[in-house]
Write a structure and sequence with these properties.
By secondary structure, this protein is of the alpha/beta class. The chain has 15 helices and 22 strands. The chain folds into two domains: about 5-30 and about 265-409, LarA, C-terminal domain (2-enoyl-CoA Hydratase, Chain A, domain 1, Alpha-Beta Complex); about 40-260, Rossmann fold (3-Layer(aba) Sandwich).
């Protein structure tokens, strides 16, 4: 009896003929029975945040950009229900890191009906705009660290984050709103270059050079005025848990919930792994690597990992794509001998391709995919290959929302 599995691809269902359920293992983020309600949020928010202090001081909200599925507008609606003066008096900044300024469509998606009310007080971070940055100290390398001066132009800063596994920082959320979210390009580049180390892994904070660098830089920020609203969502993007308070404390509490939601002990390796990538992380090849890193460890040597990602916005960041032209795959370094922004992506892909085959089903042209050492695969060839592997009774894993779901061996 044939069993079909529907995965999302480019906004439509892609049906996979997988035979009996004994042929494959299915992984997906867990779901909760009861999502966080307004009353639960209000209790958490008012327990850990001084409302009177918010009302009498200047306030800045730090918001994720369109490449996160953070339920930002839901949190803002709830805060508005508690006291509409908070939203109407606050300023807002999009923590873009090195990403481009959000489009109007992206802003409408993030803020929905609240956008007209707050857009006059909304700005987007630009990591290259030195006039908007303020030095806050030095990092572990003795190099200057800058963040957007808006953090210091306000008495209180509230960051709204979703906390999920991150393929080299351990987890999203918490400190990442500020660094890299509001940092200067050079600081971001130094941090990201450490992601070439395979100790930089999803779910790992201790012993992860990227995470430890981020944590040390958070010590440079005023802890008493930086508040976090840290959200963990389930497989339906419902709010499973929420933690408020000083950024580091709220983040640490959310991390425990995120691991329970997204991490799975596979206990074995697979000949073939199919990784579904959901919006908005399916928009570019740059973002697709999250799914690769989250799942590659459970693919056996010589096995194949297939990424399903339409990449309607193309490559994404051009840094790593252009760098690949002069990348030496033998030494796994740039021919110049220098590390630069994006080099971590290439070095990690090269290491993984020495062990497994990595294919991409997308709307990109074949040459663009091969440029960064991945193999293109069209949908028809993918389905034919899958049918053959099923007939051969190969060990197959299917991973929903693979950009967030982490498999451990």
């Amino acid at each position: 009896m044939t069993m079909n599995i529907d995965l999302q691809y480019d906004g439509r269902n892609l049906i996979l003929p997988l035979g009996s359920s004994e042929v494959f293992d299915l992984y997906q983020p867990r779901s909760v029975i009861d999502a966080v309600s307004f009353n639960l949020f209000r209790e958490e928010f008012e327990t850990h945040v001084d409302l009177a202090n918010l009302r009498k001081n200047s306030l800045l909200f730090v918001i994720n950009d369109g490449y996160r599925s953070t339920p930002t507008v839901q949190i803002l609606r709830w805060i508005d229900r508690i006291d509409h003066r908070i939203i109407d008096c606050a300023d807002f900044i999009i923590a873009t890191g090195t990403h481009s300024k959000p489009t109007q469509d992206q802003l409408e998606h993030i803020f929905e009906e609240l956008l007209p009310r707050l857009q006059p007080r909304l700005s987007a971070h630009d990591c290259m705009d030195t006039n908007s940055l303020r030095q806050i100290g030095q990092d572990l390398f003795g190099q200057p660290v800058f963040v957007n001066s808006a953090v210091y132009d306000h008495d209180i800063v509230i960051s709204i984050n979703s906390v999920e596994p991150h393929y080299f920082a351990g987890y999203t959320g918490g400190r990442k709103s500020f660094i890299p979210g509001l940092a200067d390009f050079n600081t971001i580049e130094r941090n990201h270059n450490m992601a070439s180390s395979l100790n930089a892994q999803p779910l790992r904070l201790t012993g992860n050079p990227v995470a430890e660098h981020l944590s040390s830089m958070m010590d440079l920020l005023p802890e008493d005025t930086c508040i976090g609203i840290q959200i963990v969502c389930d497989s339906e993007n419902r709010i499973a848990s929420i933690h408020c308070g000083p950024v580091r404390m709220a983040f640490d509490r959310a991390v425990r919930d995120a691991r329970s939601m997204y991490a799975f002990q596979a206990g074995k390796q697979y000949d073939l792994l199919i990784a579904e990538i959901l919006p908005p992380l399916d928009l570019s090849l740059y973002q697709a690597q999250k799914a690769l890193e989250n799942t590659q460890s459970v693919v056996c040597d010589g096995g194949r990992l297939i990424l399903l990602t339409a990449c309607r916005e193309g490559i994404g960041s051009r840094h790593f794509y252009e760098m690949a032209t002069d990348w030496d795959r033998v030494t796994n370094t740039h021919k110049s001998g220098k590390s630069a922004f994006g080099s971590h992506k290439l070095s990690r892909v090269v290491r993984h391709t020495e062990r497994i085959e990595i294919c991409v089903v997308s709307e990109l042209d074949d040459n663009s995919i091969r440029q960064v050492f991945l193999e293109p695969l069209d949908k028809e060839s993918f389905i034919s290959y899958l049918k053959r592997k099923v007939c051969e009774k190969s060990n197959v894993a299917v991973v929903r929302d693979a950009a967030h779901t982490v498999l451990l061996i």
